Amino acid sequence: MYKAAFFALASTLLFSGCVTYQSPAVRTQQTEDQLIQQENQRRIAGRIETLEMEINRISSELDALRRHVDSRYATLERKTEADKREMITRLSSQMEKLIKQAAPAAPSYSGGAAGATGYEHVVQRGETLSAIAKAYNVTAKAIIEANKIKNPNRLSVGQKLFIPE
Length: 165
Hints:
The protein is mainly alpha-helical. It contains four helices and three strands; from the N terminus they run H-H-E-E-H-H-E. The chain has helices at residues 2-16, 24-102, 129-136, 140-147; strands spanning 108-110, 117-122, 160-164. A hairpin with a 6-residue loop joins strand 1 (108-110) and strand 2 (117-122). The longest helix has 79 residues, at 24-102. It is rod-shaped, with a radius of gyration of 48 Å.
């Protein structure tokens, strides 16, 4: 009879799911596993935080580097423009001198518009209408009108121009 009662009690406990028995060793092992998992989670959180800080540091350095490169580029661009202007000024000055050296050799004559006096100029390679006008101290418009030039951007080497006085 004791056997039947014990069997009935054991069956009830086993199949009811209310209570499960765990030995102290099993509970200790589960507690240790939970502590290990929590420690691993803290370590991972610390690594993530460290990586986020490193990303922020690298991002700040990249922004500073980008600003530095932009600044250097702008400085270089300004210097390049200044160098271009200086070269244009120097070349224009040299062309004016060359044109002036050639101009006195050109005889003064009457030509172009009715009875106008001035100089004859033969266009040389690389000369522009504005450089020629500047060398003779006249306006480009006066040369265009005196020679009835249709396209002032198309001067030909060897072309003879009347330069009014």
